[in-house]
Amino acid sequence: MEISQSLAELDWIPRPRLLALRRLGIETAEDLLTHFPRRHEDRYQFPHFPREESDVPICLCGEVIKTSLRRFGGWKKIFEATLEESSPNALSEPLVCRWFNLHYVQKMIATGERIVVFGKPRLRGKRICMDHPEFEVIENDEEISIHFRRIAPIYPATEGLSQRALRSIIYRLLNEISDEPLETLAPGGLVHGKRCDAIRAIHFPENWEARDAAREHLVLSEFFAMQMLIASRRSDASTRVGQAHCGSGALLDKFLKALPFELTGAQSKVIAEIRCDLAASHPMNRLLQGDVGSGKTVVAIAAVLLAVEAGYQAAFMAPTQILAEQHYAVLWRWLKPLGVRMALRTGARQEESFLSLVAGDENADVIVGTHALLYDTVSFSNLGLVVIDEQHKFGVAQRARLTAREPAPDVLVMTATPIPRTLTMTIYGDLDVSVIDEMPRNRGKIVTAMRDESKLGEVLSFLRTQLEAGRQLYVIYPLIDESEKLDVKAASAEYELWRERLHPYRCELLHGRIPAAEKQEIMERFRRGETNSLISTTVIEVGVDVSNATVMLVENAERFGLAQLHQLRGRIGRGEHKSYCVVLTSDQSKETSVKLAVLERTNDGFEVAEADWELRGPGDLLGTAQSGLPVLKIGNLKTDARLMRRARAAAMSIFDADPRLELPENQRFRRLVVEQQGRTFSNVS
Ligand code: ADP
Ligand code: MG
Q1: Is 476 helix (H, G, I), strand (E, B) or coil?
Q2: How many domains does the chain have?
Q3: Fewer CB within 10 Å, N side or C side of the chain?
Q4: For 136-140, 171-175, 291-295, which range has the lowest pLDDT when averaged over its residues?
Q5: What does the pLDDT look like over 211-233, one tens digit per residue?
Q6: How far apart are CA 63 and CA 494, in angstroms?
Q7: Residue 668 belongs to some domain of the structure
């Protein structure tokens, strides 16, 4: 049997099961064999029934001695099954399993049956109960050895396909398939043993050690395949035809001399790294990570100037029109005096722009724009450098599109969303990474405090002392959808409230539905200090830079994610004054207080990112879809980071020695990469 064989060709799988499998995306033998268990149950030996509650779910086995169905509140029903421990000498109490409003359970469980349950025991009155446990009825048929008296696999559930049915099908398939098709995917130096053994052992392990070893093998193989894809992209990019795009640096020196501040050590270091890349003839593919306010723009300008001086065009892309315009304004201020020609392209909304500019100066040295730069008719005559700001909003595919031209331009992508280090090697694994890990000096401290909504009075008087001291204030509202009329109305109503609260200080309202030109005027008045306070949605999240604004109040902070709160907080602490961020919430839940406490604890974006990742569910892959990587079937980017590092090192060393995978012994890896590319295809588009 081939691994790619369609399950439909196996006559022993009944059609309804085939359809259920198809719903899970399982079509081939390989799909089924790599439909990995989400956990295992030790069904050799069960613990005694507990007498106490537990937060850890446990697996128990017992005989049903009683069932009952009770109604409450009219149409609602509780089905209860009382279990007794099977071993005769048990001193333990019976266990009551309860299901609410699940009438099908009642049809599946009857007195006298033996069942295995998995759940958290809870004390309810004097009874030990399990509410909505996972369960399986043990049937004494010839198949019992597949399901019982072993470590049994428990699969991701699906409707119309019981654990028992799925387990039987996989068991039979494992018996029918020989070892050869299950070719080991990773090099022997990385994984132990053979893939065929690991696949067998992950489904039906002999013992826990075998299960763990099998999992490690499979996770390493999966990670290795992923890192091979990443390494191949990296290798493709760097072996493409490029050019050197680096001037002598005279223009850059002029710019640096005119700056009103000294570069930080980190900025200088990163500029040097970029300069090396620009001077090399292979294309640059570099990610610049730096917290909000760390001064990435200056670094980008440095890169732009080096390219322009060498006679090339530079494109500077931002994810939104506002940001593109802001960048344009900043770049204009610095580059015009140096005689650099500039153009702004923001696509469809051009007419709304506050800047009255010529649309398409194809001879401009620097073209600033949004995604529109990807698609529209701008034909760069001589593109040497592409700077992409806020990379997390761009996908790999978009990036590829921009850089597909020949000869390849140098690419610098910048992100202010620090990413946990262990994720960087995957999501941005095909890029070289530079980090600005130092803030400009003379930055005031930011103090962050979480307050309950009921303390608004105290908070208000604090805000007033700050306004009296001449500082400015942001009040931020979490409007989920800027296009919602309702939300805009809510913000407008709040705005009226704030005008009263802060009287006689002047407020203005800012949100996404205000036309761009007006928005810009509002920002301008705030910048000049004519307005003391901005009541705003998250439109000010990125890029805004007013150093006298040192106070931020975030309303309904529980509705923001940690990363976004950190971004918002980056709007303050930009001048020499001490800054204050107050996060208000009326949400008393533990999750919210744990989340917001992270902000109180640290201002370091990397720490925030790590904590954010830690707090979110393990399923969250933080943009892996955008990164154009295959979906993981068994590995976990967070908890298996150690294995990812090993897989990455192995993949890198293969490509270091053989960048085009030409050696005969690397042909199987070449096939692996091609196959991975096929898998990601649907992800990328
Ligand atoms: P971000 O990394 O968030 O894009 P910016 O590039 O917008 O940050 O820089 C934030 C502010 O810090 C800007 O006003 C910029 O002029 C200023 N800045 C940048 N580098 C330095 C420095 N080395 N010393 C002092 N101020 C700096
Ligand atoms: Mg920036």
Answers
A1: strand
A2: 5
A3: C
A4: 291-295
A5: 999 999 999 999 999 999 999 98
A6: 60
A7: no
Percent of the chain surpassing pLDDT 70: 89
Q: What atom of ligand 1 comes closest to residue 299's alpha carbon?
A: 6
What is the domain extent for residue 132? 45-149
**Residues 264, 373 share a domain:** yes
Are 554 and 517 contained in the same domain?
yes
Q: Quote the ligand 2 centre to 298 CA distance (angstroms).
A: 9
Task: Output the CA 267–ligand 1 centroid distance in Å.
Answer: 10
Q: Whole-angstrom Cα distance, residue 683 to residue 671?
A: 20
User: pLDDT-derived band of residue 672, with 50, 70 and 90 as boundaries?
Assistant: very high
Atom of ligand 1 nearest to the CA of 570: 3
How many residues appear in the chain? 685
Ligand with an atom nearest the CA of residue 270: 1
Look at residue 306 and tell me if it is in a domain: yes
pLDDT tens-place string over residues 511-539: 877 887 888 888 889 999 999 999 988 77
Describe the crossing of helices 667-684 and 208-239 by its angle, rounded to 10 degrees.
Answer: 80
List the residue whose alpha carbon is closest to atom 16 of ligand 1.
295
Query: Which atom of ligand 1 is least distant from the CA of 296?
Result: 2
pLDDT of residue 349: 47
Any residues with CB less than 8 A from the CB of 404 and at least 6 apart, and which? Answer: none
Ligand 1 atom at minimum distance from 294 CA: 2
- Ligand nearest to the CA of residue 288, numbered in listed order: 1
Is pLDDT of 359 > 50?
no
Q: Which two tokens stand for residue 519?
A: 């928005």
Structure tokens at 175: 């018996």
Pocket of ligand 1 (CB under 6 A): 261-264, 267, 290, 292-298, 416, 440, 545, 574
| Closest atom of ligand 1 relative to the 297 alpha carbon | 6
Instruction: List, in sequence order, every residue forming a beta bridge with 123; answer none if it has no partner.
Output: 128
Within a domain: 670:
no
106 backbone dihedrals φ, ψ, rounded to 5° = -60, -35
Mean pLDDT value across residues 266-275: 96
Å from CA of 482 to ligand 2 middle: 22
For the stretch 114-154, pLDDT in tens is 999 999 999 998 899 999 999 999 988 888 889 999 999 99
**Quick check: 551 and 474 in contact, CB under 8 A?**
yes
The pLDDT of residue 627 is 61
Q: Cα of 95 to ligand 2 centre, how many Å?
A: 59
